[in-house]
Amino acid sequence: MATTTETLKQGLPYRPCVGIMLLDRDGRVFVARRRDTPDGWQMPQGGIDPGETARQAAFRELKEEIGTDRAEFLAEAPETVRYDLPDHLVGKVWGGRYRGQEQRWVALRFLGTDGEIDIETEHPEFDAWRWSAPDRVLAEIVPFKRDVYATVLAAFASLLGRG
Asked: How far, in Å, CA of 14 to CA of 75, rounded?
């Protein structure tokens, strides 16, 4: 028999979302720690607005979350990736309207300087950030997103660790 949370999830759609693998010139990955989740490191991500492409959403979200969109487009992952929220978050985030996210991932190369990154944005989501070696990213990510990040790292493997 399905639990109440499983039943709720079954009735909810996935949130259309873009994920951004932002790389520095050495092929390291930008990760930031969420203000609302201790040790909750992630790559920038956010909803795709109606009529917006994944690429457009990526640059908008980058500006909203890290204060700069100085980057160049490198690639878009060939497939969307889905994840379900953990049970304790279902009905609590995104106004309770979604069971998880369906993400389009894009890879961007950061063209600015570290001094241009400012996570104290109008609606700050992060309290810390760093460039991470690709082989460390999975260990830093919240557990319910690890499968997604493994898929993303594999999709963009040819872009990583250039330096």
From this structure: 23
| Domain residue extents for the chain | 18-159
Looking at the domain covering 18-159, what would its CATH class be? alpha beta
State if pTM tops 0.85. yes
Task: Give the per-residue SS3 of 8-55.
Answer: HHHCCCEEEEEEEEEECCCCCEEEEEECCCCCCEECCEEECCCCCCHH
Q: Nearest 5°: phi and psi at 140?
A: -95, -15
**In a 3-state reduction of DSSP, which class is residue 93?**
coil
Query: CB within 8 A of 92, min separation 6: which ones?
Result: none
The tokens for 153 are 């790292």
Q: Distance (Å, rounded) from C-alpha 13 to C-alpha 84?
A: 10
Structure tokens of 156? 């963009």
Q: Where are the beta strands (DSSP E) in 71-163?
A: 71-76, 81-84, 100-110, 126-132
pLDDT at 87: 85
pLDDT digits (tens, 9 = 90+) for 54-101: 999 999 999 999 999 999 999 999 999 999 988 888 877 788 889 899
> Residue 151: what residue type?
T
